[in-house]
């Protein structure tokens, strides 16, 4: 690669030595020269192959450099200035200088002191990597691999110098980021310097506690994990504390405040406060653990690429329980949080969407235990007990979270902003913002009514009568939830029945909802009382296995404990109208919701004209139903379904594109699709289809493999985890030949 000519490392310890080894291993420099005041250390570095030549006298080594060479200053933070003073006199022109000090403000001050300004050849940097071990013998060529390097270039830093440093770090396998000196020092004070302060101080406290002389004899995993960093290099850490004093003091003050309120909670036996701190911290740490597993030191939890490879053929059979209903899981957290008392939920969907709602309420101060195996305990704070979250609420892929929260937050006394992933950021939000504004809410959206949403404290809302322009349970629910905070009555009138979980669950929490045909009315100013909620399995997830059994000869599958609320059962009616063999067994009511075991056996299907009245009742099931339509004799025609174009993807287009790739004639229309079915034998060719990151598109094409001639590859499937985290496992267990890469 040869990005740099010679590399001169000043201070050949763990940091400098590892950089030298990494560049050597990558073939990214011609020669490494080491400078270290102790001759023996230089000899050792040579013996270990870390440097090719070693010097004790810096000016002598600098004399060897030529334009295009790189100097890496890897000395303790407070020694940087004296190194700079020598560079000033002896550094040849055209040579780039970078450093690895953990505090950048002090490096900038040192440079300004020595040169009077930041010289253009100096590119300050900080590798976010290290080890509690120090010295050249600890150096490794992979220390920086998949770790982050923060560079803090100044406005006058030379572009060539910056490029040289970026390329060198990239050659070492690192990811390079840029930020301002101030931001760097503040972030590091909180995430690195404060933990070191606490670890050093804890070990020191324990080691000098006379009453516990033998303390280390009994110390186990917790002590070891927590205090590993207290065996880091004392000189380095002394320097960092002195160099980043202001930012570290700020971090210590904040921490001391939190520690003392934790102390008070322990002293007063305040179990709710303790659970609040511990559950929030656990959620945050679990999130970080996942980030570490996915990508070392990744800043955002980037959706990992998941591809489904579905081999053709097979049948499905057995008894399956698919995960809990997504709509009800969201609502259980929302209403449980706003209730008085402790709500117990079981059957909760541990998918990313519902977890985004859960985290949002944690961020607003609600103590929520779990989920553990679908059980969640919510310590409700009452309708007026939410607190302003510390930052924007990130709702991932979940439209339901964002729209329902917009309504619920419209009546709070604080401002909050709601953000989401790429797909959610494209979805229309004026459908909720407009009626909420009519109620007096103050809501700002991004361009064209897209997220992010800023919901501001607006004072008293007023009830409205709202005629929904589209059949949307999310819009209906947002308005009704805002109605809990509004003066007087709030009514919604829907153009066609949509899922009524909000109305049912409000009633389950003891809040009166008057229902009269298409109209639902709540009166503001009431109270929610904690409840027990049993979330049945999600019919929208069950639908993939219903279709799987319906299209593959020999299949016989029973989906247990599925919610068959009449506002959700369109998939049953549509499949039956197509000739599907569906039996509802053991029908019962659980927590105000009808539930059944659904048995589906293969039977030949025929194409139909889908009744428009069924569309809102099966709105999420169309990707699966389109696969059934492709396997039916004759044509299936869908109309009145323009809402499908504004789901997690444009589902009409996404399915039409994928079906065409797989050799099925599918013609999208403005508000639906016409699919030409094929009865008998394989229906789909093999091929690669793009789910566009839409969970339901991904699962639908996985099911298609049962009637495929060849392998189907489905791209961008990570979001299956939003609604159906164990889809691949259940699919394989029931007979699909699905592999997840
Ligand atoms: C949902 C309502 C529907 C549905 C979504 C969940 C809900 O959206 O597609 O998956 O939980 O209220 P719309 O209200 O946009 O139709």
Automatic annotation (TrEMBL):
CDD domains: EPSP_synthase. It catalyses: 3-phosphoshikimate + phosphoenolpyruvate = 5-O-(1-carboxyvinyl)-3-phosphoshikimate + phosphate. The keyword Lipid metabolism does not apply. It is an enzyme of class 2 (transferase). Keywords: Amino-acid biosynthesis, Aromatic amino acid biosynthesis, Cytoplasm, Oxidoreductase, Transferase. Residues 5-296 form the Prephenate/arogenate dehydrogenase domain. InterPro entries: 6-PGluconate_DH-like_C_sf, Enolpyruvate_Tfrase_dom, Enolpyruvate_Tfrase_sf, EPSP_synthase, EPSP_synthase_CS, NAD(P)-bd_dom_sf, PDH_C, PDH_N. Pathway: Metabolic intermediate biosynthesis; chorismate biosynthesis; chorismate from D-erythrose 4-phosphate and phosphoenolpyruvate: step 6/7. The active site is at residue 620. Pfam families: EPSP_synthase, PDH_C, PDH_N. GO terms for molecular function: 3-phosphoshikimate 1-carboxyvinyltransferase activity; prephenate dehydrogenase (NAD+) activity. It is found in: Cytoplasm. 3-phosphoshikimate binds at residues 326-327, 331, 472, 474, 620, 647. It comes from the Bacteria. Its EC number is 2.5.1.19. Phosphoenolpyruvate binds at residues 326, 399, 427, 474, 651, 696. PROSITE patterns: EPSP_SYNTHASE_1, EPSP_SYNTHASE_2, PDH_ADH. Catalyzes the transfer of the enolpyruvyl moiety of phosphoenolpyruvate (PEP) to the 5-hydroxyl of shikimate-3-phosphate (S3P) to produce enolpyruvyl shikimate-3-phosphate and inorganic phosphate. Belongs to the EPSP synthase family. Monomer. This is 3-phosphoshikimate 1-carboxyvinyltransferase. It comes from Microbulbifer echini.
């Amino acid at each position: 690669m040869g990005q740099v000519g010679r590399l001169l490392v000043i201070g050949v310890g763990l940091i400098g030595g590892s950089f030298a080894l990494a560049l050597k291993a990558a073939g990214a420099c011609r020669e490494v020269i080491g400078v270290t005041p102790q001759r023996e250390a230089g000899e050792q570095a040579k013996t270990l192959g870390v440097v090719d030549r070693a010097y004790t006298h810096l000016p002598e080594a600098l004399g060897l450099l030529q334009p295009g060479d790189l100097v890496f200053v890897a000395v303790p933070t407070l020694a940087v200035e004296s190194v700079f003073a020598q560079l000033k006199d002896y550094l040849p022109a055209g040579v780039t200088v970078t450093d690895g000090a953990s505090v950048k403000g002090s490096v900038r001050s040192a440079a300004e002191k020595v040169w009077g300004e930041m010289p253009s050849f100096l590119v300050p940097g900080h590798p976010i990597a290290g080890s509690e071990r120090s010295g050249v013998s600890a150096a490794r060529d992979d220390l920086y691999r998949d770790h982050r390097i923060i560079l803090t270039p100044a406005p006058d830093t030379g572009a060539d110098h910056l490029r040289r440093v970026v390329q060198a770090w990239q050659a070492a396998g690192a990811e390079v980021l840029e930020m301002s000196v101030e931001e760097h020092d503040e972030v590091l004070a909180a995430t690195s310097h404060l933990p070191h302060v606490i670890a050093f101080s804890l070990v020191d406290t324990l080691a000098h506690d006379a009453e516990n002389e033998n303390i280390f004899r009994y110390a186990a995993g917790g002590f070891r994990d927590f205090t590993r960093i207290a065996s880091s290099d004392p000189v380095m850490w002394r320097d960092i504390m002195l160099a980043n004093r202001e930012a570290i003091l700020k971090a210590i003050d904040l921490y001391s405040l939190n520690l003392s309120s934790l102390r008070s909670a322990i002293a007063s036996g305040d179990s709710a406060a303790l659970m609040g701190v511990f559950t929030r911290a656990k959620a945050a740490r679990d999130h970080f653990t996942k980030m570490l597993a996915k990508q070392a030191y990744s800043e955002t939890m980037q959706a990992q690429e998941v591809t489904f490879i579905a081999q053709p053929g097979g049948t499905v059979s057995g008894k399956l329980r698919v995960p809990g209903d997504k709509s009800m899981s969201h609502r259980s957290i929302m209403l449980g949080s706003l209730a008085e008392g402790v709500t117990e939920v079981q059957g909760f969907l541990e998918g990313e969407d519902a977890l985004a709602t859960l985290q949002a309420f944690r961020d607003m101060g609600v103590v929520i235990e779990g989920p553990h195996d679908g059980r969640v305990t919510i310590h409700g704070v009452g309708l007026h007990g939410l607190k302003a979250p510390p930052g924007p609420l990130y709702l991932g892929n979940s439209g339901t979270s964002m729209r329902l929260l917009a309504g619920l937050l419209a009546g709070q006394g604080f401002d909050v902003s709601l953000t989401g992933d790429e797909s959610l950021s494209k979805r229309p939000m004026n459908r909720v913002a407009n009626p909420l504004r009519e109620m007096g809410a103050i809501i700002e959206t991004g361009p064209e009514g897209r997220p992010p949403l800023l919901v501001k404290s607006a004072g008293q809302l007023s009830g409205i009568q709202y005629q929904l322009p589209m059949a949307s349970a999310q819009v209906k629910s947002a308005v009704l939830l805002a109605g809990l905070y509004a003066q007087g009555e709030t009514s919604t009138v829907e153009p066609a029945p949509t899922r009524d979980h909000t109305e049912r669950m409000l009633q389950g929490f003891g809040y009166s909802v008057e229902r009269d045909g298409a109209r639902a009315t709540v009166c503001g100013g009431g109270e929610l009382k904690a409840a027990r909620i049993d979330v049945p399995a999600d019919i929208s997830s069950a639908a993939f296995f219903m279709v799987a059994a319906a299209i593959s000869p020999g299949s016989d599958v029973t989906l247990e404990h599925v919610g068959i609320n009449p506002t959700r059962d369109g998939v049953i009616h549509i499949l039956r109208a197509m000739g599907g063999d569906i039996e509802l067994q053991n029908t019962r009511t659980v927590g105000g919701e009808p539930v059944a075991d659904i048995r589906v056996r293969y039977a030949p299907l025929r194409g139909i004209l889908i009744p428009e009245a069924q569309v809102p009742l099966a709105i999420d099931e169309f990707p699966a139903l389109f696969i059934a339509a492709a396997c039916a004799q004759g044509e299936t025609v869908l109309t009145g379904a323009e809402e499908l174009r504004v789901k997690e993807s444009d589902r009409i287009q996404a399915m039409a594109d994928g079906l065409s790739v797989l050799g099925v004639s599918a013609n999208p229309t403005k508000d639906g699709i016409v699919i030409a079915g094929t009865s008998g034998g394989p229906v789909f060719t093999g091929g690669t289809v793009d789910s566009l990151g839409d969970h339901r598109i991904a699962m639908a094409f996985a099911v298609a493999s049962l009637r495929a001639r060849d392998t189907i590859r489905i791209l961008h499937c990570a979001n299956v985890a939003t609604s159906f985290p164990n889809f691949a496992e259940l699919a394989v267990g029931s007979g699909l030949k699905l592999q997840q890469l």
